Amino acid sequence: xxxxxxxxxxxxxQTQSVTVRVPAKVxxxxxxxxxxxxxxxxxxxxxxxxxxxxxxxxxxxxxxALTCExxxxxxxxxxxxxxxxxxxxxxxxxxxxxxxxxxHLTKGIPVAGGMAGGSADAAGTLVACDAxxxxxxxxxxxxxxxxxxxxxxxxALYGGTAMGTGRGEQITPVLxxxxxxxxxxxxxxxxxxxxxxxxLDRQRATAKExxxxxxxxxxxxxxxxxxxxxxxxxALRNDLTRPxxxxxxxxxxxxxxxxxxxxxxxxxxxxxxxxxFLAADAVRAATVAAALEAAPSVRAVRRALGPAVGAHVL
Length: 314
Ligand code: ATP
Description:
Radius of gyration: 20 Å
Bound molecules: adenosine-5'-triphosphate
CATH architecture of the largest domain: 2-Layer Sandwich
Low-confidence stretches: 1-14
Number of helices: 10
Mean pLDDT: 94
Number of strands: 12
Structural class: alpha+beta
Largest sheet: 8 strands, mixed
CATH topology of the largest domain: Ribosomal Protein S5, domain 2
CATH class of the largest domain: Alpha Beta
Number of domains: 2
Shape: globular
């Protein structure tokens, strides 16, 4: 008789692996408060997960290793500076084991695009390694580890639509109804998040503006509760738009191209340079996408529905 008849569990020569899918995010509102003494800003944001995904595959191995394919792969570091690598090390240290895992990233989220791709990979790695190693950490503990890795990482675990406060890492679900049709325009080059915040501070200092405490408009929350895309389109707001456009003037052309093609809302995604467009339905989303495909300031166009579910094992 065969030593390992079919259906008798994994054979010793079979590699064990877990794949986790994680969505990108847009910030439907991104309100940036005054600069704090510690160099951060208090944020009030509404995160919204959309159906553009990275996948993280974790496979048992002798030592920690990382590979990557897909969208923007040439710009993804494959060493300990990668957030996925750091997530595996942090989880291993927390549960007292060696991070003996090979990680493979399949990227659909643009790199340095303001859609939290690195954060998605970190969240995906936490979930994948937790499953591979059978650590079974409670959700709150995974959330605490996620927050240590970066302020956008906890939301990638949850997905859906949620309010983020503090540096963005304190998550509260938001009541949202319905499904929204989004179109995303990727730019030719990424934009550094710290550079955009520095430009915001510079502009505010020059204008000697009184900076209000961060907060989310009631109108936006009402639109989400009602599932009303027209109201939502009118209520989208991102304080980083002005500094991002000043660093990258051609973003203005992208935003106008989407609006002219009939988008009911236009938005810089996070710190940019990806631009997000809300369409009334699937047919209008196709029209907006076609117009953006033709815009010289746009490298690639994607359509996606929101909200999407957070990091989950496939
Ligand atoms: P956010 O919206 O959170 O500001 P982002 O989507 O603009 O993030 P990322 O794609 O997360 O930006 O990457 C920003 C930088 O981080 C990249 O330029 C890259 O050098 C580095 N990085 C580290 N880990 C990753 C990763 N797993 N995927 C992509 N970039 C990573």
